[in-house]
Each structure stands twice: as C-alpha cells, then as structure tokens.
C-alpha cells in the first residue's frame, strides 16, 4: 500500500512540476507490435496462405474465385489503393438505391455462376462451399441484406417439403408416423441457421478487429517527451488490454466455428443432439462476444468509429437488430 501511495504521489508531482517521466515508462514501442502498411511491403514474417487456412478453415480456392468475380464488376464499388483492390457498399446511397444495387449485384453473381448448384448440390463438399461463399458475400453486402438472403435460403431448402408433403388430393403425407419424431425432424434443419449465425458473428468480429487494430497502428496521440514523436495508440497498455484479449478470443472462436461447421457437415442421426447443443451454446457465446467486440472497436476508433465507411457502427446496428432478436 505504501508503495502505491508513493508511486501515485510521484506521478502527481511530476505532472504538476512538468517533469518528464522516468526512462522506465510503461508507454514504450513494442517490437512485436511494429507495423508498416501492407502497400509498403509485401513481405510477411509468416506464411500468409497458411494463416488463411488456419483462420478460414476450408475452400480457400472458392473464396478467392468469388472475390475475383466481385472485383471485376463496378457494381461493387471497386477501389484501388497502392496496387491493392478493395470493395465495399456505397454508403452515400439511399436505402432504396442500396436495395436496387443489391438486386443488380445478385443478378450479376447469378450470371457468373456463383449460385450454380446452390439449391441442388448435396453432400459435405457442396455445403462447405456454400458456407465459404456466404462469408465472402458478407464482405461486400450490407449485413442485413446478407442476413435476409441466408434466412430465405435456409427456409426454402431446409423446411419446405423436407419431412412431409400434401398430395394433390389434399392428403397429408409423411414417412415419419410418430408425431414427436416428426416435430423434431421439422426443427432439425434450424440447426443450420444456428451454425450460420454463430460463424457470421465470428466473421464480423474479425472484420471489426482488423479495422480497429489497423487504426490503432497508424493513429498517434500525445508524446512521452516534450517535442517528441507522438505515441501510437496500440503502444498504450490500456489500448492493448482493450483490443488484444478480444483478438485472442476471436482466434479461438474462429477455430471453434470451423470445428462446428465440420461437425455439421459430417452429421449423423446419432450426432444431431450433440450438434444441436453445441451450436446453441456457440450461437449465444459468439454473438454476445461479437457485440462486446463491436462496441470496443467502435470506441477504440474514436470519431472515426461512427463513420459509415468504417463499417463498425453499421455492424452494431445491423447485428443488434437482426441477430439479437434470434438469440
């Protein structure tokens, strides 16, 4: 206790007397957080493709193919900066204009064969491909648009005529005679919705943390010494404690989400109950963490966090409105 009191007294004294802090200040640049903009260097200290394989988990070729299709069209607001290509929605448009642009984008993707075998393809490989394309589409579509598309697709393919049917004469037909088993069979396809919601929450967390951390590695505020260089935000321990634990969580949740997708694609009647329990737990955990991550990232970006082009604020509004209602 005496040490804490003396330390605080020293801090106040230095502040009042305008003394420079001692050389052992905790606010120091960290080598592990050194950063240069990607457009200035194409060299990485790790295998970038292997990192993608760890984080995305599957179908890297399909993801790259879809992104190449997207950047070829002006409908996706392609922008080139320092030799790199970016796409994003046009947030200067009205909602009606955005809806019209969304329909034109979907028509373009249909023409390019993105949704080929979307409803007819069967098997684990096809389902993993669809999940991968969902995640890529989420980069360039406003989240609510993607959400509506996912819901309509899930309802169409998984619920209609999946367990029972009505004959032309009006007779109700079902191969499952037990009422309870039939009801469980009707609800089982909703597991795919939980899987999509959980994995989408993790993906949004990845995007928001990438935005906030990159901002913290370029934005400077205040200097340690008079007339000295200002300190990067991420060199402040408080900023590190704010973002880096969330980054570690998202890594762990990304691996868990990939594992959940693999469990779902390899599902059997015996494993359905376990998948139902795990997907329900992941959906709640991942969405709660995503809301916290989005709020921290928006605040960590300061005034930039409320800009539409920053996307974090829009993610908060869209996610709270659509996903929390389902959780």
UniProtKB/TrEMBL annotation:
Localization in the cell: Peroxisome
GO terms, biological process: fatty acid beta-oxidation using acyl-CoA oxidase; lipid homeostasis
Any one Gene Ontology molecular-function term assigned to this protein's record: acyl-CoA oxidase activity
Keywords linked to the UniProt accession: FAD, Fatty acid metabolism, Flavoprotein, Lipid metabolism, Membrane, Oxidoreductase, Peroxisome, Transmembrane, Transmembrane helix
GO cellular component: peroxisome
Pfam families registered for this protein in UniProt: ACOX_C_alpha1
Residue intervals of the Acyl-CoA oxidase C-alpha1 domain: 190-318
Transmembrane segments: 147-164, 195-217
Cofactor: FAD
Family affiliation: Belongs to the acyl-CoA oxidase family.
Protein's UniProt name: Acyl-coenzyme A oxidase 3, peroxisomal-like
Organism in which the protein naturally occurs: Vigna radiata var. radiata
């Amino acid at each position: 206790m005496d040490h804490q009191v003396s330390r605080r007294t020293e801090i106040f004294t230095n502040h009042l007397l305008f003394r420079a802090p001692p050389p052992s200040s905790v606010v120091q640049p960290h080598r592990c957080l050194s950063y240069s903009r990607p457009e200035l260097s194409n060299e990485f200290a790790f295998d970038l493709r292997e990192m993608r394989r760890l984080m995305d988990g599957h179908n890297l070729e399909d993801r790259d193919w879809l992104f190449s299709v997207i950047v070829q069209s002006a409908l996706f607001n392609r922008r080139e900066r320092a030799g790199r290509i970016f796409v994003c929605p046009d947030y200067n448009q009205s909602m009606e204009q955005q809806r019209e642009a969304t329909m034109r984008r979907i028509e373009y993707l249909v023409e390019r064969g993105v949704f080929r075998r979307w409803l007819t393809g069967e098997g684990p490989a096809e389902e993993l491909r669809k999940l991968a394309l969902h995640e890529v589409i989420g980069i360039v579509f406003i989240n609510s648009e993607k959400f509506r598309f996912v819901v309509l697709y899930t309802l169409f393919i998984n619920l209609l005529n999946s367990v029972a049917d009505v004959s032309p004469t009006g007779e109700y037909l079902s191969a499952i005679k037990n009422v309870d088993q039939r009801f469980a069979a009707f609800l089982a396809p909703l597991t795919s919705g939980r899987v999509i919601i959980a994995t989408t929450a993790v993906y949004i967390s990845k995007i928001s943390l990438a935005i906030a951390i990159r901002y913290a590695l370029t934005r400077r505020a205040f200097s340690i010494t008079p007339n000295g260089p200002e300190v990067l935000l991420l060199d402040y321990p408080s900023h590190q404690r704010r973002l880096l634990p969330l980054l570690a969580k998202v890594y762990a949740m990304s691996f868990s989400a990939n594992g959940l997708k693999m469990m779902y694609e390899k599902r059997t009647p015996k494993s359905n109950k376990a998948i139902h329990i795990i997907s329900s737990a992941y959906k709640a955990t991942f969405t709660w963490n995503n809301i916290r991550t989005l709020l921290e990232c928006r605040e960590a970006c300061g005034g930039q966090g409320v800009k539409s082009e920053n996307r974090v604020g829009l993610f908060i509004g869209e996610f709270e409105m659509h996903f929390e209602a389902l959780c």
